[in-house]
Design brief:
heterodimer; A: alpha/beta; four-stranded antiparallel β-sheet; about 35% helix; globular; B: mainly alpha; MetI-like fold
Chain lengths: ~260, ~350
């Protein structure tokens, strides 16, 4: 009992967002024609869980993320965060994009403090900047400018910029897509341990089957555009996971079949 | 950033390259060349007979000798002067070239009289202008500088605000864009006749013209800078809870600054042109007015003297703007050095 109580006090205060996507459809107007992108997507993401959206390139995964972040509004259906409709961006839902998109005129520290500055919290919560930089291992590069960073360091800085806001929902749009293999593998496990320590809800878009299976608790496989949910794979494996785990290999085969690539593997 | 360190690239000194294997700090005999060249200038000016007597020749000789003495002192002290010494060593080829140019100039005018006299004069005649009319020239620099600072500051501020508004607000763009397109391409000098009767004083008319010449390029480039900001920068800020004000002040404007500076440089060049023309046409002070006056009286040495001062003023203003840019845009890679 004592140990259980101690464990409970150690669990972080931040609680993940309870995300609910209900019958969402979306389309773009292109050259006067309507291009459907998402078709009737319904998905519930439990607070504190890690869900990956897996699908072919250009299928509309990123569009779904922009809707979740509140950057765009869906044509049909609704998105709820903790039961409230998502009508605009909110600092509790932070996005990490494929490109780090650090502001080149600010140092790493200046980029990381951006969220605090935007909400007038720099004076009261400045210690979070240092904490976030330490968390991603960039505390020694606080005064560097973005053009002085490697790709992996820049993406770490972008991650720190998100984490400094203590997000309840971390939205990641292929955050490791442009990194080299080694950096990618390191950061996959780093993000998983950040998520396990912080307790936020994590939503990851990726087209890398292995990455989705290594990181997420549930993998939502999507179809070609207009995207629908083809299947939801439950990955009931403890962390840290290993690439060659036979259960993961079986799931990978299943995911590739769903993506129409079963025969090539 | 390290242009002063390399003192090996002396253009006129290529034949002395075997010296370069010697240690960097220490007495170098090639440092004796600049004082020697200035001494030659002083000697030729004194002892070579002139067909015609030129006033202020002694002062010119004294100046050349003083420069020679200072350069000799710097050559001896150079190894102990650190960065400043390196700077002087880097300037050696230019210091020699200047003395050579002055000597040739002295020869073809005062000594050999190859150039027609009222239009060309020896260096001591220019020195005479500075010694006799220095106060008046300083006053002209003050008035020109004041007109430039006032006009450029007003033009830059208004142009910047106009450009930000065009780039940010669709309504401002709807009304402001046609005006800029219609008025912008008209050269600021075309407004001269209008400005001189519409404004209460010729000085305020001058400020208006300089501001107009500055404001248009600043507005156009600020506008294009704000309009071309990567939209992902806005997405990032919005998801982090940024207000509209934050998006303008902390995202759009800093991102547009490299464009803004291009506009400021273009505006400054335009401001120089308009400044001189305005002073020649109506403003009763400043270097442009002095140039016009000197030409009218056939005072050609005064004209050259004023031109040299004008060059210094313009170059100084550009250098200042470069210094401000280097400080504000230190985050950029591969910037041009002035």
């Amino acid at each position: 009992m004592v140990t259980a109580a101690a464990a409970r006090t150690e669990t972080p205060l931040a609680v993940g967002t309870d995300l609910s996507i209900r019958g969402v459809s979306h389309a773009f107007a292109l050259d006067g024609k309507t291009l459907p992108v998402l078709q009737d997507i319904s998905l519930d993401v439990a607070p504190g869980s890690f869900v990956a959206l897996l699908g072919p390139s250009g299928c509309g995964k990123s569009t779904l993320l922009r809707l979740v972040a509140g950057l765009d509004r869906p044509r049909r259906g609704e998105l709820l965060g903790d039961g409230e409709p998502i009508v605009g961006p909110d600092p509790s839902r932070v996005v990490v994009f494929q490109d780090p998109t650090l502001y080149p005129w600010r140092t790493v520290e200046g980029n990381v403090r951006l969220g605090l500055e935007a909400r007038g919290l720099v004076k009261t919560h400045y210690d979070r900047v240092g904490a976030a930089l330490r968390l991603v291992g960039l505390d020694r590069f606080a005064s560097a400018y973005p053009h002085q960073l490697s790709g992996g360091m820049a993406q770490r800085a972008a991650l720190a910029r998100a984490l400094v806001n203590d997000p309840r929902l971390l939205i990641m749009d292929e955050p490791l897509g442009k990194l080299d293999q080694l950096t990618r593998m390191t950061m996959q496990s780093e993000i998983v341990s950040l998520w396990r320590n912080a307790g936020f809800t994590a939503l990851l878009v990726t087209h890398d089957v292995e990455e989705a299976l290594l990181m997420a608790e549930r993998v939502v496989v999507m179809t070609e555009r207009p995207a629908r949910i083809a299947a939801v794979l439950e990955v009931e494996k403890p962390y840290p996971r290993h690439r060659n785990d036979p259960d993961l290999v079986a799931l990978r085969q299943r995911a590739l079949e769903l993506l129409g690539l079963g025969a090539t593997w | 950033m390290s242009t002063i360190v390399d003192d090996r690239t002396g253009v006129g000194l290529a034949e002395f390259t075997d010296e370069d294997s010697a240690p960097r700090v220490g007495l170098r005999w090639r440092s004796a060349l600049p004082p020697l060249a200035w001494l030659v200038l002083a000697g030729i000016t004194t002892w070579w007979p002139s067909p015609q007597e030129w006033p202020r020749t002694e002062e010119f000789v004294a100046l050349a000798s003083t420069v020679a003495a200072v350069l000799a002192l710097l050559a001896v002290l150079g190894p102990w002067l650190g960065v400043f010494g390196a700077r002087v060593r880097h300037a050696e080829p230019w210091l020699i070239a200047l003395a050579v140019i002055a000597t040739v100039w002295e020869l073809v005018t005062a000594k050999l009289a190859w150039l027609p006299v009222p239009f060309f004069m020896p260096p001591q005649a220019i020195l005479e202008v500075y010694l006799d009319e220095g106060g008046k020239l300083a006053e002209c620099v003050f008035y020109s500088g004041l007109l430039l600072v006032k006009g450029f500051a007003i033009g830059a501020l208004v142009g910047f605000a106009y450009g930000v508004a065009l780039g940010w607000s669709p309504r401002a763009s709807y009304w402001g864009h046609p005006i800029l397109r219609f008025v912008g391409p008209v050269p600021a000098t075309a407004w001269l006749p209008f400005a001189f009767f519409a404004f209460p004083s010729s000085a305020s008319a001058g400020v208006f013209l300089v501001a107009l010449a500055t404001g248009v390029p600043v507005a156009v480039l600020t506008w294009s800078g704000v309009a071309s900001v990567n939209s992902a920068y806005y997405d990032i800020a919005r998801t982090l809870g940024a207000s509209e004000r934050f998006l303008v002040g902390k995202v759009a404007i800093p991102a547009a600054m490299p464009h803004v500076f291009v506009g400021l440089f273009m505006g400054l060049a335009g401001a120089f042109a308009v400044l001189v023309v305005a002073e020649m046409m109506g403003v009763k002070a400043g270097l442009g007015w002095y140039l016009q006056w000197a030409q009218g009286w056939g005072a050609y040495s005064n004209m050259y003297a004023a031109l040299a001062v004008l060059a210094l003023l313009c170059s100084g203003a550009i250098s200042l703007l470069f210094a401000v840019r280097d400080r504000l845009l230190a985050w950029q890679k591969g910037m041009l050095r002035w």
